TrEMBL record:
<dbReference type="Pfam" id="PF01165">
    <property type="entry name" value="Ribosomal_S21"/>
</dbReference>
<keyword id="KW-0687">Ribonucleoprotein</keyword>
<dbReference type="GO" id="GO:1990904">
    <property type="term" value="C:ribonucleoprotein complex"/>
</dbReference>
<dbReference type="GO" id="GO:0003735">
    <property type="term" value="F:structural constituent of ribosome"/>
</dbReference>
<dbReference type="GO" id="GO:0005840">
    <property type="term" value="C:ribosome"/>
</dbReference>
<dbReference type="InterPro" id="IPR001911">
    <property type="entry name" value="Ribosomal_bS21"/>
</dbReference>
<comment type="similarity">
    <text>Belongs to the bacterial ribosomal protein bS21 family.</text>
</comment>
<keyword id="KW-0689">Ribosomal protein</keyword>
<protein>
    <recommendedName>
        <fullName>Small ribosomal subunit protein bS21</fullName>
    </recommendedName>
</protein>
<dbReference type="InterPro" id="IPR038380">
    <property type="entry name" value="Ribosomal_bS21_sf"/>
</dbReference>
<dbReference type="GO" id="GO:0006412">
    <property type="term" value="P:translation"/>
</dbReference>
């Protein structure tokens, strides 16, 4: 799905680029491209996902009080 940014009337290019970057960030497009830049072994994917999951559970336990 292509990202489309329409430049508003009298809008500076800098502001339009900033809006485009925010939209890309919200949709995790840049993160996905960077993740797929290099091959990652299945065991490394599982290890990374387990590490993230353990971290989020630790945060939930810490702030559940």
């Amino acid at each position: 799905m292509p990202i489309e940014i329409k430049i508003r009337k009298n809008e500076p290019i800098d502001r339009a680029i900033r809006r485009m970057k925010k939209k890309l960030d919200r949709e995790n497009i840049i993160k996905g491209v960077r993740a797929n830049r290099y091959y990652e072994k299945p065991c490394e994917k599982r290890r990374r996902k387990n590490k993230v999951q353990a971290f989020t559970q630790m945060l939930r336990r810490r702030y559940a009080e």
